[in-house]
Give the backbone structure.
Amino acid sequence: MPVLYDRVALIGLGLIASSMAHAMREKGLAREIVGYARSAETRAAARELFCDRVTETAADAVDGADLVVLAVPVGAMGDIAVEIGPRLKAGTTVTDVGSVKQAVIDAVVPHLPDGVHFIAGHPIAGTEHSGPRSGFATLFVNRWWLLTPMEGADPAAVSRLRALCEGMGAKVDEMDAAHHDLVLAVTSHTPHLIAYTMVGVADDLSRVTDSEVINYSAAGFRDFTRIAASDPTMWRDVFLTNKEATLEILGRFTEELFALQRAIRLGDGDHLHAYFTRTRAIRRSIIEAGQDTAAPDFGRAAVAAKGD
Ligand code: NAP
């Protein structure tokens, strides 16, 4: 594949950035990959595993870069933008991989100089693991990468970034940031909150937690625990910054939950059966859309990939 960017700067060197670096290297999409992360330990791992060069500050990392990727938790993006803004050259594209889009745009754009193209993005791909050693080159293969360019975004900059995402194996779609945040509140953010809650409830039931919950964990609970093992900082920031959409979906969720609770109390089997039939069809459409496999999954060995 052709080189798309001469110098890519990765700010934050965890799961997403390290996966991007592995994929870009494998496909020859960038001539040089420079990285920065907060801790010396992460910087050392990145130097060893996937960066051509690692710097001591974010500002040094973006020097001369033609693509800058912000891959830190959503709540840290604004401070990074303040630091790197003065060092960005005109014509540079800055993107991010944060799980929330409108809050990142609001926090970052005011600190970028004229002539820099900011194109927010979100790969719908992840695992419950984090850090520089958790990345792998195929993380984005056949996953969606959503771009939320602002009105008036430079078409050439958008299509080059799109080509990069596609080069790493992703399928790309463009949408408005607010719409992205609502969709992700449904498909990712609220489900995570529900998983955190369910695992928390089980933990509160200390009489079973010690042994039964762990030893006899069945598919439903086990899947919740995998989701609830996701990075606490990342998820704290998601809920702090996608507040409205998450609260909207949580409101609908509690209404539905009450309706199901009532059906159970009243012994309304028809209601429960009709509801579960409808939800089963959604699973089928996810498989048909190629976003999961139909392979039997319950009782499996732990698998890494899940979409976020
Ligand atoms: P991660 O593995 O936890 O890595 C985060 C990186 O950011 C680390 O290198 C960390 O440095 C650095 N960092 C954290 N706080 C910082 C701060 N205040 N200032 C400077 N650097 C800081 O995270 P990730 O999973 O790659 O997530 C990165 C972004 O991608 C997040 O915005 C997240 O919302 C988004 N995302 C995640 C997933 C997923 O499933 N994980 C999926 C899609 C998008 P140290 O290692 O030195 O602490």
Observations:
- Residues 302-307 have pLDDT under 50 and may be disordered.
- The first helix runs from residue 15 to 27.
